């Protein structure tokens, strides 16, 4: 970590009042957008919107986990980050299954709804990303929060492209393709988070093992 390598320093940074306030703000934004976007996605028949809505739900849950482990030891924070990475991977696999289902049924989503809701989601996620950027160089738990937000902005841009594609082609394939790309992005981000969390977990564990011959 750039500021220092001690667990105490990282814990102090993660427990800052500013970071806690920011987490509460982005948690509320993501929970609200999940409700709005899942309803719009179902009404529009859009796999991409439904995938993005579930991403909002996953992020809201992850932010709640981050709030829970603030101030705890590096091992606890690394464990929380590992859980978040694993859940992101499950989300990616679920989205891939949704894409296959919609493709098999030949669904054609409502492009205007995708555009309006996708734009709103993009604005909300840009706000979250700006708020979280200051914490992107922290421990695995803090980095995982920023990675989730960064992925969301990319996903929202892709949803808007899908809306234009559906409108222009009159088919659902742009929606399916974008949803599949979102699943791939989620799986990639999950790998990053799990790898960093595993390294920090091992580092924290090694610090608790006494050296050979050391007195207890």
Automatic annotation (TrEMBL):
One of its GO terms (cellular component) is membrane. Coiled coil: none annotated. Its main location: membrane. Residues 23-199 form the Cation efflux protein transmembrane domain. It comes from the Bacteria. It is found in: Membrane. Pfam families: Cation_efflux (PF01545). The chain crosses the membrane at residues 22-44, 56-74, 86-104, 110-132, 153-170, 176-197. Keywords: Membrane, Transmembrane, Transmembrane helix. This is Cation transporter. GO terms for molecular function: monoatomic cation transmembrane transporter activity.
